[in-house]
């Protein structure tokens, strides 16, 4: 959804978000052109209706109907309205608005906000009515003078996230223990390195040994814990994330293959070419050409 979409109460400006860390709006009127692929400055949750095409990380998602869309500022995305009109609601908020550490962890842990998650969730009429009511409540509170409006709005955001997770059930969370905690810290450290913004600022933590050193644990313990919790060793998670970032850069940027290689921490472009072909079955240039034909 375009951040300058016309909404009740006027046009949204970035300054509103920077001032309060939060903005909610009702979206109406003609659809806007394609929102260019890239990162944003805030989280976004949209309840929308229409024919939409999303690029999110290395995923492409098409949906025609009513949906929830969850955007993470660390993950680049674009969206294209293929309907002449747009309608729905959107709220935007910074990580700082979420508040204390417990809330931040809860938000960042939600699968709908993670790179490997599904950010677009179809909703039926009953679910849309319920979530729309939450947005209406946020609009009312946001424009009112209730002294603890920030706290109430955070509760509304939490409620939308929980509703989304209940619509799209996630695997039951394992009991928190040392293995679960270290796995979360590993996944968080891995994800914080992305997206790559410049070849001159390459990945600095790329191996299981690197991650173990940063987390102050033995490499064998880290591997054992991560595999116990996720079913996959550390090396596989790293490889999958690097490959996903490589695909996104090849598909959505004009960077040279060499710059992508250096940005991902490969010493030589030839190492990256061999790695990418081994993992995907295609060379970087072939992958880029194939995706641009679509």
TrEMBL record:
PROSITE patterns: HTH_ARAC_FAMILY_2. SMART domains: HTH_ARAC. Keywords: DNA-binding, Transcription, Transcription regulation. InterPro entries: Homeodomain-like_sf, HTH_AraC, Tscrpt_reg_AraC-type_HTH. Residues 180-290 form the HTH araC/xylS-type domain. PANTHER family: ARAC-FAMILY TRANSCRIPTIONAL REGULATOR (PTHR43280), TRANSCRIPTIONAL REGULATORY PROTEIN (PTHR43280:SF32). This is Helix-turn-helix domain-containing protein.
């Amino acid at each position: 959804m375009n951040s300058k979409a016309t909404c009740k109460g006027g046009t949204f400006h970035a300054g509103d978000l920077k001032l309060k860390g939060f903005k909610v709006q009702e979206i109406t009127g003609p659809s806007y052109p394609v929102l260019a692929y890239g990162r944003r400055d805030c989280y976004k949750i949209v309840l929308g209706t229409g024919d939409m095409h999303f690029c999110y990380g290395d995923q492409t998602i098409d949906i025609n109907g009513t949906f929830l869309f969850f955007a993470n500022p660390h993950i680049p995305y674009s969206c294209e309205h293929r309907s002449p009109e747009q309608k729905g609601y959107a709220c935007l908020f910074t990580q700082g608005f979420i508040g204390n550490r417990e809330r931040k962890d809860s938000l960042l842990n939600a699968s709908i906000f993670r790179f490997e998650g599904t950010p677009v969730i179809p909703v039926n009429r009953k679910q849309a009515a319920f979530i729309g009511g939450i947005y209406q409540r946020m609009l009312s509170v946001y424009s009112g003078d209730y002294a603890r409006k920030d706290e109430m709005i955070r509760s509304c955001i939490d409620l939308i996230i929980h509703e989304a997770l209940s619509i799209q059930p996630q695997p039951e969370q394992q009991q928190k223990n040392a293995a679960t905690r270290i796995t979360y810290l590993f996944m968080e450290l891995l994800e914080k390195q992305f997206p790559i913004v410049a070849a001159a600022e390459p990945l600095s933590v790329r191996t299981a040994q690197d991650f173990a050193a940063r987390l102050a644990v033995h490499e064998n313990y880290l591997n054992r814990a991560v595999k116990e919790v996720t079913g996959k060793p550390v090396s596989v998670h790293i490889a999958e994330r690097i490959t996903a970032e490589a695909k996104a850069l090849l598909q959505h940027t004009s960077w040279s293959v060499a710059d992508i290689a250096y940005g991902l921490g490969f010493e030589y472009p030839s190492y990256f070419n061999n790695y990418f072909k081994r993992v995907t079955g295609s060379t970087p240039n072939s992958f880029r050409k194939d995706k641009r034909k679509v």
